[in-house]
Design goal:
The structure is a homotetramer of 219-residue chains. Chain A is mainly alpha-helical. Chain A has eight helices and no strands. In chain A, helix 6 runs parallel beside helix 8. The two termini of chain A are 25 Å apart.
């Protein structure tokens, strides 16, 4: 790249700098959102004995499960975001803004997680908490899908790329979003089951069932 | 750059390292400030049914709107900061300090946001909260403007740059600051309307109405 | 690398970009987890005189000790992670996921730290808090060990590397994990002693007793 | 550097990667510590009118002043850290650990800041809060000084460097530490005056009174 003597080369290198900060802000927000989740795990304050503390921790399982689901979902979105930016040639103005919208939903996730931890399995208002949570997860996945489609159509992704990770992301986003809609509907009947469903969808995004060993090595 | 054999070249490369940490600290503060906002969204604690929870969430709309306004404003300032640093050749001592001052106001924003969420639409002290919030937004935009002007006058920005994003930033900062003053005045009469006004100004900074498609592509 | 004209070279450079974001997310989570610990140090609210405040601060010594242990442990894991990634040629899909699992446990650490600060030395439930804390530390060290073994077996680490820091990490991980098991058992008898034990293990990971001076210098 | 064909060159490039993560963790901790300060600004909850809210905000001036002092101090330490790393050729094991110790004190700063905001100007225990705060600031400045001295003696800093910023840092660290000791003593007599003293020391570190214009420009 640096041997290129065209005057158009300088804006190109500026573009690449901009990609760096686009990634830096994104990684910052992902890292903070994923780490803030722990603040919502409440330390039991009442127990007077080891036995009571164990029970109090065990009783808070929806909090831990919600923590795990949100962590897995943010992790899955980061993996997808990471796979996408790996193949970005450049970033344009519109992608920067779409990305801010994705970060808005990602950084918002700790709130529905807290709502869920507060209301699930209490017999009070758990359908609202479960649906609200599912919609937030669906919005994150949808925005990642929009980001990916825009980058593709605006020719920001190198067209010759055949990457296992990116193929995996692309092939799973649409079924994943359909699954979110189904699990949100399930949550109206059995809210706790929806929580397990959200975890399974996140793991479906995260785990490359058959792909990790096929990659060429340079060793 | 690396073919340059002058002894002055080494300080030049050190300067560039410094630009990296200048950007890293800034991106860190922007990412944290934008993500901390979610901590101020309170989970309703009283509702006993789905119906009550939906109402409680709906009643907290100033909190969500404030979240959206602050997120958009920090996002807009980040876009401007990003456009500016893309064209920085080097960073000098004074710019580092001006930037710390900008970060001071950006990292302070979650506080007036909380104040606003607490007092807006309660009939109590909302004029103070709305004005305080508007002044904080105005200070952020003004510092970004000062940063930009200093970088330009100290020849830290490459003078041959014609970038759509940078032109957009420059052409909108002054009208944006005038708009903040007007909306702060409006807020003394109708505090809630000011909140909508702040959102519109942030979106005005964020959206490049006619520019995103004109950029040359290298594909 | 850039002189290599094979078509396989491009995916290779993409791989390297991915390493950058893998490191950026990890550093973000480490930095946030290590800094969030301070939020759990409670400011005493009751004292009416300097004498009372000094006593109140002194009485909270388990909180400060827990802060120090968790800070040292996260610091030690970061040093190990840092030594490992220094010698990574590339990152594959599976390592990215293993790393997310490590970050899950690292970002979870503030919770058992809070639990410990709340219950240690109160005569109530301190065995549960101490064991829970030890298991979390053990999980972090184990995951770092798994990460290291996987990277080695999948040929992601350059095989010709002989680094003092990496040798130190490798030679201490297994004894460190055995020590965690012993100290967890000790904690069932004397919970406070376990806290000191956890600190010693973290310092054992952190301090390169005899190695730091042997490194070749390029000056 | 890349033309160097010695086998020792590879570890050298690994060293540089390590410098990147050393900086990334540091910038993360600085950014988070500086942004977390805002969480300690309490939103007044009692006021029923604009007049009361203005009074409540005005009454909390020690909170705002403490925020400003801690922000300025962390900013000053970051500037010094930044100037130092700009001239680091490499990082060795011991410097990594010294840096973790500096980050321990920096990330701890929000706690004495909170203590100060709670007790200053209340007539209760303010001497303890003020001294505790001053000692924390002194520890941060001392560690930065130790870091700088170690880097110099271990030949990690390029010896031919004559940088205005670095000279400034070096020439001000020792008087600054003496000033901290004096202001801590002053705080035993007049705690509020100490707060102003701490702010002046931070600004003394931050502002390069006569140096910023002497730097050569490459434009």
């Amino acid at each position: 790249v640096s041997q290129n003597s065209e005057p158009a080369e300088q804006p190109g290198s500026a573009r690449r700098t901009r990609t760096q900060r686009f990634e830096a802000l994104s990684d910052g927000v992902f890292a903070i959102a994923i780490t803030l989740l722990v603040l919502d795990l409440a330390v039991p304050t009442t127990p007077h004995s080891s036995h009571h503390l164990l029970n109090a921790i065990a009783d808070d399982w929806p909090g831990y499960l919600g923590y795990l689901v949100s962590f897995s979902t943010i992790g899955a979105i980061w993996l997808g975001h990471n796979a996408l930016t790996d193949y970005l040639d450049q970033v344009d103005s519109f992608l920067l803004r779409l990305n801010l919208l994705l970060l808005l939903f990602v950084s918002f996730l700790p709130f529905p997680t807290r709502l869920l931890a507060e209301y699930i399995n209490t017999g009070r208002a758990e359908r609202v908490a479960s649906t609200f949570y599912g919609l937030a997860l669906l919005l994150c996945a949808s925005l990642l899908s929009v980001l990916w489609r825009y980058a593709w159509h605006a020719h920001l992704v190198r067209p010759d790329v055949h990457d296992a990770e990116l193929t995996l992301l692309r092939s799973r986003l649409t079924p994943g979003m359909v699954a979110y809609v189904l699990v949100i509907a399930l949550g109206l009947l059995v809210p706790v089951a929806a929580l397990v469903g959200y975890l399974l969808i996140a793991l479906y995004f995260v785990f490359p069932v058959r792909l990790p060993r096929r990659r060429p090595r340079t060793t």
